[in-house]
Amino acid sequence: MSDVGQSHEALVEAFRDSMRHVAATVYAVTTIDNGQRYGILATAVSSLSFEPPSLLVCVNRTASLHDPLERAERFCVNILGLGNRDVANHFMRPDADRFAVGDWLEVEGTPILSTAQSSLVCRTVHRHEFGTHTIFIGELLAAKHRQDATPLTYFDRNYIDISEASRRSGQKA
């Protein structure tokens, strides 16, 4: 750690570089506000507790989903699988109707992707602002999971197939 005392800009760049090399599952976080569907791709999602079952989702305050999520009572965390890469690529297009690709249903007042590896519908129970983001804590209302799916994983600005790496090493995660 010889870089103690580095400039703020250097610290932020070192943090970005470090986080790019952490493999992360890709999530489509969705909600409905005033009858309109909203969604973004996210990797800053984590389980929080089993009692009660809950998640936290970190959303940049400049993201298109942020303000609708602030107002919404419910949201869904769709855990994307390898077969959902088309949905992920479409969600990355800034001016696209993000729900034009994929088979989207409405469950508990939120958009869920029927082909997602898993979909976790939550009721927003807490919001906390920190830095550039808001941390949304959701308590689970409904969940579905497909046993046959492999998560879509993001690493160093690319999607990777962790199932191939697992097969090559002979290990199961």
From TrEMBL:
One GO molecular-function entry: riboflavin reductase (NADPH) activity
Location of the Flavin reductase like domain: 19-161
InterPro entries, A to Z: Flavin_Rdtase-like_dom, NADH-dep_flavin_reductase, Split_barrel_FMN-bd
Keyword terms of this UniProt record: Oxidoreductase
Alphabetical GO biological process terms: pyrimidine nucleobase catabolic process
Pfam families registered for this protein in UniProt: Flavin_Reduct (PF01613)
PANTHER family reported for this sequence: FLAVIN REDUCTASE (PTHR30466), FMN REDUCTASE (NADH) RUTF (PTHR30466:SF1)
Name of this protein: Flavin reductase
Organism the protein comes from: Aurantiacibacter rhizosphaerae
